[in-house]
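Exercise (ungraded).
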Amino acid sequence: MSALASLVAPGFFASEAVHVALAVGGVTAIVSGTVGVFTVMRGQSFAGEALADMGAAGGAGAFLLGAGNPLWGFVAIDVAAAAVMELIGVQRPRGRDLATGIVLAAVLGLAALLLYLNTTVHNTTGATQTILFGSVFAIASSTVPLVVLLSVAALALVAALYRPLLLSSMSAEMAAARGIPVRLIGAVYLLALALAVALAAMTIGTILSTALLVGPAATALRVTKRPGVAIALAALLGIAAMWLGVLLAYDSYEWPPIGTGWPVSFFVVALIFLGYLISGLPARLPARLRERSRVSMRTDH
Amino acid sequence: MERAQTGLDEILSVQGVSVRLSGRDVLLEVGFGIRPGQFTGLIGSNGAGKTTLFRVILGLQTPSAGRVLIDGRARSRRNPLIGYVPQKFLLDPDMPLRARDLVGLGVDAHRLGIPRPSRARRELVAQALAAVGAESFADARVGQLSGGEQQRVLIAHALVGSPKLLLLDEPLANLDLRSGQEVVALLARIARERQVAVFISAHEINPLLPAMDRVVYIAGGRAVSGTTAEVVRADVLSKLYGSHVDVLNVHGRVLVVAGAGDAADMEGHEGVFPGAGIVA
């Protein structure tokens, strides 16, 4: 208990900013982990990255219009971008990366303009940092209900599509042969993906939000061979990275340089990366050890 | 729904089907029927129209002429009477999907929502896995199975919904000789025991010969059908190809050879004349 107490800087559990950070961080980590498993399965990590990056234009636009909360900007631009990417064929096996890249470049150009206007005309220099890398301690508590609502919406979409989405992520051909409307399923999934990255951008910023999407999911896929378990594990890993990241960032106010604190997004992304590296270790163990653990796992079934 | 005038007992009836894609006739007035429990081979080289014909039967391609009846009725978009095994199945070895999960998706992937675990669903899956002899690798990741094992799992996935027609697109393409023989024997047993019509495409006729009741031979979008003895004959195939073809029987294998059978001719047409396998 004393070890835990020394890990947690004084005032951590009393701070309202921490409460909001933990709530928003936890909920968005669940959404990102759940949606992310399908993103990795479908090989759409680049589409996820592109959607996340494009959120920067929306966030900058929201700040320019005087909205203190960039979430609406993230959601609006990501959903619109998902629709455009669907129309120009992100679901096609070939050419989809090209289409995604072209839309990404155009929207990032817009983001460059809007961020520039923010710093020069409005003199809101903090906006760039908040939009690109997040500032989870600065989220207004009034935002929490909206975050929860959008999170539930994204999770409901994935839950509703679960079976046809799983089969069409494995083989679009087999899904189509069963009469599953593969294109429609893919489009609705893209909407859930847009919501997931918009929510994650609130916590660790538009540039890094795919880390929360893809990292825990990729780690879970290495560890388990069951789709349902992979989703649960990805959500848990995301929460763990997010909460531990918030704690370390809070603690870091006492680290050098004293009184400034390190950004949460650094810790979260570093922890996710660490988790991914650790999950790869079993494959490097001697074959004899691995065989033994596999036998013991089999008896669990 | 109207019933077909002919072949009331046919599970699949293809009637005068033509498909024109970007100005090219991929299928031209193709017609044949398949009865329950029959093992039928669809033989043709790459590009002969095999996959297009399957897409028409599955309802994924609308024919420009003709119609397809499944169990005497016009096919619908989702037809539970058809089980389908696609041509290539390349799954990332790390994908979190056990063979058991993939077969489970065969039960209810068309339904929305998360599957609720039930004894009935588990037993259906276990029966399908047992029917193809896949119990021993039921809990392995599908992507890490060998080609022959994956074929068995895919057959179980197609079979679990109790279809009356099983369509398999080139299931032997990536298998070694022995695995191929095992899959053919398995399919023949499924056809016999479950009275499922098995319709299997291949570019080589010989691996199917031991099991085949009937053959649909397809070339340049046209098709002839019947028993092997009726179809795999020099006069029939010459007419189909529109040039002289010889059919040779060598040690129980069939060789379909172009022209007078001289080496240059055969080499030049390798692949164009399916069945003309290089003698091993």
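Further reading is listed at the end of the chapter. For now, observe: Chain B is about 30% helix and 25% strand. Residues 12-229 of chain B form a domain with the Rossmann fold fold (CATH 3.40.50.300).
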